[in-house]
């Protein structure tokens, strides 16, 4: 069928969370000031700006704004629309997607973007040499298995018809395939720029998006300028932005109040949150919204003693989640499963593992560890994460587990989690899983599937249940919206069984996201806590 403005993929999940992502309203009073530039702050440096590799909340927005994809989401929504593609069709069996590209798109190096760039970019993400944490999103494309096994250098299922037409063939229908093509991992990059960067494309990115990276002084700042040739008319709405690195969150908030900073990227520390909410000085500067997020502790199933399910179940019972939520002043609700409560497929009847010190000790004794054991717990070094990790450390000590804390910058935590055999436990706080798109499959493929238990991946539990893989693929193949109820129910069962039988995670809480912005910044709240981009740099603006 013709699908110029197809909403089939992810539609049911989008409707289920429509309260989370209302449509952007036009505000005549908030006109954009021409020529404006803004300042954004972060404590830690950016790990990479390579769209095939970058996969944390900090760099996701910047990468998204530098590159373009076949389909994308209008600002502040989860409604798929054509982007680089001016239109597309899907075959009757749901297995062939044909995209017609806009003819006037150029990379920022001046070269026209053509269909062969699409094929190269998808193949680069899937190629195991790239070590992309997003490769498994594209498992449905014909030739994926051969390429990931090192038996092929190209994807049989991606064909260049002409310079402006590309065709994808899938092994089975995939209800979220269009959502996958809207992810940063499917951003289109020029082969010559990747090769010229000689392994450093993450520091020398070339895309076709709204912004161009003009400067990156490691540990100090990144400077982005508006792309004058951006093919989306009227975007971006600022002429550029500078990201200042090394700024403590509390200092950033003081500078924000003085008008020296426009967005405090690390948000509002819990210790300051209530004071700011009550203060008229910060009125209109706080964005506080629900999100599809779960913060958790990963338990590395390949490292002893976490290779024993009884140990994993025991540590689940050892953590006092109510106390941890109090540490962040109630800006979250305790979690009992992988999926967040607003996500389709969330099992309202599942209670998870209750906080039970005696039962935890009993399970450790059954596992032959009645005297406990020593381990390591990795955490981000940005407040409040070290304090939360200390609370977890205390809870573990109460059942005989001595956990040494490893508080590191975010990129180093990510690297440790994605290195086989390195991190026994990781507290994901500050790096908790935020949905890439509003569908339960996104909480399986990139963080719990066998395909994501690879170097550089985000499956930090290194969990692989081969019995679950065909069930997950079958659930993905159920079409939306016709089979939405059946599909969501099956995903709910998958996640409940994973947690109940294998317990590779300790789900801790589902957190609200809070952003602080200066009073001169304009636009609706949802573009500062965008459901698919985190911050929508294309859409934010400075008021006249």
Label this structure with key terms:
single chain, 544 residues, alpha+beta, 7-stranded mixed sheet, 15 helices, globular, disordered N terminus
Q: How would you explain this protein's 3D organization?
A:
With 544 residues, the protein is α+β, with helices and mostly antiparallel strands. Helices cover 26% and strands 19% of the residues. The chain is built from 15 helices and 22 strands. The protein has helices spanning 11-16, 57-66, 115-126, 144-148, 177-181, 191-197, 249-258, 270-278, 309-318, 321-327, 357-366, 385-397, 410-417, 468-477, 484-502, and strands at residues 37-42, 71-72, 81-82, 85-90, 96-101, 158-162, 165-169, 211-217, 221-226, 240-245, 263-264, 286-289, 293-299, 332-334, 373-380, 401-408, 425-427, 433-434, 505-511, 513-517, 521-522, 541-542. The strands form 5 sheets. A 7-stranded mixed beta sheet has the order 8-9-10-1-11-20-12. Strands 13, 14, 15, 16, 17, 18 and 19 form a 7-stranded mixed beta sheet that branches. Helix 9 (309-318) packs antiparallel against helix 11 (357-366) and helix 14 packs antiparallel against helix 15 (484-502). The protein is globular and about 65 Å long. Mean pLDDT is 92; it is low at 1-28.
Based on CA atoms alone, the radius of gyration comes out at: 23 Å
What's the count of strands? 22
Overall geometric form:
globular
Q: Supply the number of helical segments.
A: 15
Measured distance between first and last alpha carbons: 45 Å
User: How would a textbook summarize the main sheet?
Assistant: 7 strands, mixed
């Amino acid at each position: 069928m013709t699908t110029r403005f197809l909403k089939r993929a992810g539609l049911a999940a989008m409707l289920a969370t429509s309260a989370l992502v209302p449509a952007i309203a036009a505000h005549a009073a908030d006109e954009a000031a021409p020529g404006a530039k803004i300042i954004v702050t972060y404590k830690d440096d950016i790990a990479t700006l390579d769209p095939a590799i970058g996969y944390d909340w900090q760099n996701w927005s910047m990468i998204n704004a530098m590159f373009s994809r076949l389909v994308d989401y209008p600002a502040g929504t989860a409604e798929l629309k054509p982007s680089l593609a001016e239109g597309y069709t899907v075959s009757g069996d749901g297995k062939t997607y044909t995209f017609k590209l806009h003819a006037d798109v150029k990379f920022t190096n001046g070269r026209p973007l053509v269909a062969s760039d699409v094929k190269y970019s998808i193949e680069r993400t899937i190629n195991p040499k790239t070590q992309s944490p997003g490769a498994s999103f594209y498992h449905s494309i014909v030739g994926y298995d051969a390429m990931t096994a090192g038996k092929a250098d190209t994807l049989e299922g991606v064909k260049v018809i002409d310079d402006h037409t590309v065709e994808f063939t899938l092994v089975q229908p995939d209800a979220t395939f269009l959502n996958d093509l809207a992810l940063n991992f499917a951003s289109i990059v020029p082969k010559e720029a990747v090769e010229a960067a000689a392994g450093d494309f993450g520091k020398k990115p070339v895309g076709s998006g709204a912004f161009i990276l003009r400067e990156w002084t490691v540990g100090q700042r990144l400077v982005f300028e508006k792309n004058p040739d951006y093919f989306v008319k009227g975007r971006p709405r600022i002429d550029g932005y500078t990201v200042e690195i090394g700024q403590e969150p509390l200092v950033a908030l003081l500078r924000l109040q003085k008008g020296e900073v426009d967005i405090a990227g690390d948000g509002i520390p819990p210790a300051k949150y209530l004071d700011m909410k009550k203060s008229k000085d910060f009125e209109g500067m706080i964005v506080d919204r629900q999100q599809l997020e779960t913060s958790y502790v990963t338990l590395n199933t390949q490292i002893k003693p976490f290779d024993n399910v009884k140990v994993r179940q025991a540590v689940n019972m050892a953590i006092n989640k109510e106390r941890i939520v109090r540490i962040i002043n109630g800006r979250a609700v305790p979690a009992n499963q992988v999926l967040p409560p607003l996500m389709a497929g969330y099992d309202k009847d599942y209670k998870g593992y209750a906080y039970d010190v005696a039962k935890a000790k009993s399970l450790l004794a059954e596992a032959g560890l009645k005297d406990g054991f020593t381990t390591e717990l990795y955490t981000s070094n940005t407040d409040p994460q070290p304090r939360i990790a200390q609370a977890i450390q205390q809870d573990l000590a109460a059942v005989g587990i001595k956990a040494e804390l490893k508080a590191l910058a975010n990129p180093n935590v990510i690297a440790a989690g994605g290195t086989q055999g390195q991190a026994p436990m990781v507290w994901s706080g500050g790096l908790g899983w935020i949905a890439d798109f509003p569908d339960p499959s996104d909480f399986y493929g990139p963080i719990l599937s066998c395909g994501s238990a690879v170097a550089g991946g985000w499956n930090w539990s290194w969990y692989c249940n081969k019995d679950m893989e065909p069930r997950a693929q079958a659930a993905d193949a159920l079409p939306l919206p016709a089979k939405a109820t059946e599909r969501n129910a099956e995903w709910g069962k998958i996640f409940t069984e994973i947690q109940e039988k294998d317990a590779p995670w300790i789900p801790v809480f589902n957190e609200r996201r809070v952003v602080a912005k200066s009073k001169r910044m304009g636009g609706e709240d949802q573009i500062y806590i965008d459901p698919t981009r985190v911050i929508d740099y294309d859409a934010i603006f400075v008021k006249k």
